[in-house]
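Appendix B, Record 12. Input sequence as logged:
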Amino acid sequence: MAGDLGISQLASDAAPAAKKKTSNADGQRWSWMVSAALTAFVMTVPLLVVIIGGSIGSPAVWVKTAMAGLGQGSDDFSFVHTRTGHDKLHGGLLVEGFDEGSCRSRYQSAMYRRNPGRQPSKYLVSKLRRQEALQRRCGPGTAAYSDALEQLKSGKNAASPECKYLVSVSYRGLGNRLLAAAAAFLYAMLTDRVLLVDPASATDELFCEPFPNTTWLLPPGFPLWAYQSFYLDTPERYGRMRENGVLTTGSPAAEMPAFAYIHLDHNQTDSDKLFFCDDDQRILSRFQWLVMRTDQYVVPGMFLVQAFQEELAMMFPEPDAVFHHLGRYLFLLD
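Logged structural output:
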């Protein structure tokens, strides 16, 4: 009888301890699950907003809020800031020299992913450095840019310009704007043009400046004041000038209009699609100023241009990684 009472007493004493241990384990497991869920939410929301955002204002606010929460969160997210061994320059895709405080995600973005992603080719890295130097030498605020504006105001094309320019007009949802900006940037690199982005897209409200010591935003006072309204009826539309015989493969640069408008919208005509032909790229190369309007990802079409194929192959040995690399370079959250 006494033995039975002793065993009962031990069982009775052990029960609270077991319950306490189980409770602690459950609490730790629950805390871990909550942290994991919150981390997944914060990391996923910005991407979803970028993809499905229909307007620029609201997505910009949501993305900035999410990223701010990530940077100012509790210790549950400390692993984001304490991981070591990450390549903050993405294999040379990004460049040193920026003020880290002006764009936190520029050098921290590598810490947001466990997988570092695909590595850029050495040739792509060299092309990016070359484009950055071109933007600094010919971009807004330089003597070359001022001269190019005066040439544009004259209504005549420059016969042998020091610098050439591409003004990118993107529109519709945020996803369309990102795809269009990436495509315009690639075209600028392939044709050695300074890229200037329409500020109406509110790019500066969401993303950091990609080029050091210069800007990719088109400054106020651009002489083509109606460029945001260019469309099918614009006299300088490239496809229209080809249809009307204003431009031919033998047109000398000095006798061409001051600029050409490239219309690559959903309703582009067959003549507009000549943009993807070699002969027409040779004509376009004679213009000092090009204005491109699109809401599409026209990069695949550039691979059809024979004059671009060799360089594209060196820049992107993996053709499906074009936006992967350009997006990580251009679209760093401010």
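The CA atoms of residues 300 and 320 lie 10 Å apart.
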